[in-house]
Every structure is written in structure tokens, then in C-alpha cells.
Automatic annotation (TrEMBL), chain A:
InterPro entries assigned: DUF5345
Full protein name: Uncharacterized protein
A Pfam family annotated for this UniProt entry: DUF5345
UniProt keywords, alphabetically: Membrane, Transmembrane, Transmembrane helix
Record field: transmembrane: 72-89, 95-114
UniProtKB/TrEMBL annotation, chain B:
Keyword Transcription regulation: yes
Span of domain RNA polymerase sigma-70 region: 21-87
Keyword Transcription applies: yes
Classification via InterPro entries: RNA_pol_sigma-70-like, RNA_pol_sigma-70_dom, RNA_pol_sigma70_r2, RNA_pol_sigma70_r4_t2, RNA_pol_sigma_r2, RNA_pol_sigma_r3/r4-like, WH-like_DNA-bd_sf
Classification via PANTHER family: RNA POLYMERASE ECF-TYPE SIGMA FACTO (PTHR43133), RNA POLYMERASE SIGMA FACTOR SIGV (PTHR43133:SF60)
NCBIfam families reported in the protein's UniProt record: PRK09638.1, sigma70-ECF
GO MF assignments: DNA binding; sigma factor activity
Boundaries of every RNA polymerase sigma factor 70 region 4 type domain copy: 119-166
Keywords associated with the record: Sigma factor, Transcription, Transcription regulation
Species of origin: Paenibacillus pini JCM 16418
Record-stated family: Belongs to the sigma-70 factor family. ECF subfamily.
GO BP terms, alphabetized: DNA-templated transcription initiation
Identification of the protein by name: RNA polymerase sigma-70 factor
């Protein structure tokens, strides 16, 4: 009796699973067909011609080159300012140079530590 | 083969080859974004943005996936970034507006606006995206995980839960229709 019940349970479970897979297949088919229909009927802007596309590529590349040049100039300017400040400090006193380096090291360390602690807190509380 | 040659030329700075590549994939990308966003205006903006990104990053394309897959990966991530930045309320309002616009566009083709589309449009983008990629575009779970930059388990659970939600929504619609 107990064996038969188990077998019945298994068959029932398999039937339910089969039904659920069938339902899922039907749902997916419905979604795919609906999306196909949407693709056919929804008005999509026409593809730009090759000349327009080429102009777009050239303009964007030029913009990128300008942006890169600007970034490089900013980088060089900032680097020059920092180096000249350090050169100035070193010419006055070498001890001041070491002290300013130590101060910078401490500030960066504290900043990194605060950032790290903040990030850890964010991860620990997903519902926040 | 022709596409591979074009990609190689584009990576060496050939503007025409890159323009041809973008032109060939424009319609595919636009239709993909239309289905993903369910918002024609946003889809158009994202198509432009994706093409700009492709121009910038073409040298990084390594040929591991098809060029169209690479493009929709970029588009998917841009869309996800945009959605994450927006507040839930703002997102909902925009989606409702776009939803009405699309409904209006499809109004004269009754058969095109189905309950399945409506249910899909109501579904959150986090679930809609993996369902589309898996069951409409036929990508594998691990490919979707890379495309969406989320763990494999999350992709599987989102596809499963998304389908459950869709089924529930469609059953509700059916019941309402029967009662009405």
C-alpha cells in the first residue's frame, strides 16, 4: 500500500512537472510570437545612409582626439605644478620636503581607510 | 568573413569600414533596444549612445562573440546604468508614458498589441532583460551573466521569477476578461 502511494506520488509529481514545463513552453512561445509581431508593426527610424554614418564616425573620432589632447594637457600642467612646488620646498629646506611628504602620506592613508570602512558598511547592510 | 575583415579594417582606423559595420547593425540594435526598454524615445537615444561607445571601444573588440552581441552587450550595460541612476518613481512615470506611446503606435494593428507584450512592459527591467536575452535571442545563461555583469545564479533566478510573474499577470488578465 505504502509502495503504491509512493509510486502514485511520483507519477503525480511528474505530471505536475510536465504540466508546468508545458505551461512554460506555451508562455515562452506566446512571448516570442508577440515580440515578433511587435517587431513587424512598430515603426523603427530608418537606418541612416552610409555617408551620414561616416560623418558621425569622423566627428566622434575628432571629438575624442580633442578630449584626449585636453586631458593630456591638464595632466602635464598638474604634474608641472606639483613638481615645481616640491622643487621650491626642497630648495628652501630638505626637512620641510620630508615633513610635507609624511603629511601627504597620512592624509591619503586616512582617506583610504574612511573609504574602505564606508564600502564595508554598504556591503553589510543590503536593506539600507 | 566580410564582417571580420571590416572589423580588422575598422580597428586599424578605417572610418568607412566602421561606418559600414554600424550601419549593418543599426536596425538590429534599434529593435533590440525597443524590446528591452519598451520606450521608443529611450531606445533611439540609447542606440546613438551605443554607437558612440562602439566608435570609442572598437579597438577593444576581441572577436570572442559576434559583433552584434558585442554591440548589444554595450547597449545593455548603458541601459542598466541609466536605469540604476534614475529613481524608482521617475522610472515608473517614464515607463508609463512610453507604454502609452507604444500602445498608441500599435493601436491600429490590434493583433500587434498583445497581453504578453503588456505584461512584459509592466515587468521590471531587471527581469525583462534576462528573459528576452534567454528566450528571444537564445543566449546561454553564462553569456547573459557576462552581458549584464551579474552572477550566473542571479540570471537563472531572474529568468525563473520573471516568467512566474508573467504567468501570474497573464492569468489575472484572463480571469478579468472572463469576468468582464
Amino acid at each position: 500500500m505504502s509502495k503504491r502511494t509512493k509510486k502514485d506520488d511520483i507519477i503525480q509529481q511528474q505530471d505536475a512537472e510536465g504540466e508546468s514545463f508545458l505551461e512554460q513552453d506555451e508562455l515562452i512561445t506566446e512571448i516570442v510570437n508577440s515580440l515578433d509581431q511587435m517587431d513587424q508593426h512598430l515603426s523603427v527610424p530608418s537606418t541612416p545612409n552610409l555617408l551620414v554614418m561616416q560623418q558621425l564616425v569622423m566627428q566622434h573620432k575628432q571629438l575624442l582626439r580633442q578630449r584626449n589632447r585636453k586631458d593630456l594637457l591638464i595632466f602635464i600642467a598638474v604634474a608641472l605644478i606639483i613638481v615645481s612646488i616640491y622643487a621650491g620646498v626642497a630648495s628652501v629646506s630638505f626637512v620641510w620636503l620630508i615633513l610635507s611628504q609624511l603629511l601627504l602620506f597620512v592624509i591619503v592613508g586616512v582617506y583610504a581607510l574612511i573609504g574602505y570602512t564606508h564600502a564595508q558598511k554598504k556591503v553589510k547592510s543590503p536593506h539600507a | 568573413m566580410e564582417e571580420l575583415q571590416r572589423i580588422a579594417r575598422a580597428q586599424h582606423g578605417d572610418d568607412q569600414a566602421l561606418a559600414e559595420l554600424l550601419q549593418d547593425n543599426y536596425s538590429f540594435l534599434m529593435k533590440y533596444l525597443m524590446k528591452v526598454t519598451m520606450n521608443p524615445t529611450l531606445a533611439e537615444d540609447l542606440t546613438q549612445e551605443t554607437m558612440m561607445k562602439c566608435i570609442e571601444k572598437i579597438s577593444l573588440y576581441n572577436g570572442e562573440s559576434k559583433f552584434s552581441s558585442w554591440m548589444i552587450t554595450i547597449a545593455t550595460r548603458l541601459y542598466m546604468d541609466q536605469m540604476r541612476r534614475k529613481k524608482v518613481e521617475e522610472r515608473w512615470r517614464e515607463q508609463q508614458h512610453a507604454f502609452k506611446k507604444m500602445q498608441w503606435q500599435l493601436q491600429h494593428q490590434q493583433e500587434a498589441w498583445t497581453e504578453a507584450i503588456e505584461a512584459l512592459a509592466v515587468l521590471g527591467y531587471e527581469w525583462r532583460l534576462p528573459i528576452l536575452l534567454k528566450h528571444y535571442y537564445g543566449y546561454a545563461y553564462d553569456e547573459i551573466a557576462i552581458m549584464m555583469d551579474i552572477p550566473l545564479g542571479t540570471v537563472k533566478s531572474r529568468v525563473f521569477n520573471g516568467l512566474q510573474q508573467l504567468r501570474k499577470e497573464l492569468k489575472q488578465d484572463e480571469q478579468e476578461n472572463e469576468e468582464g
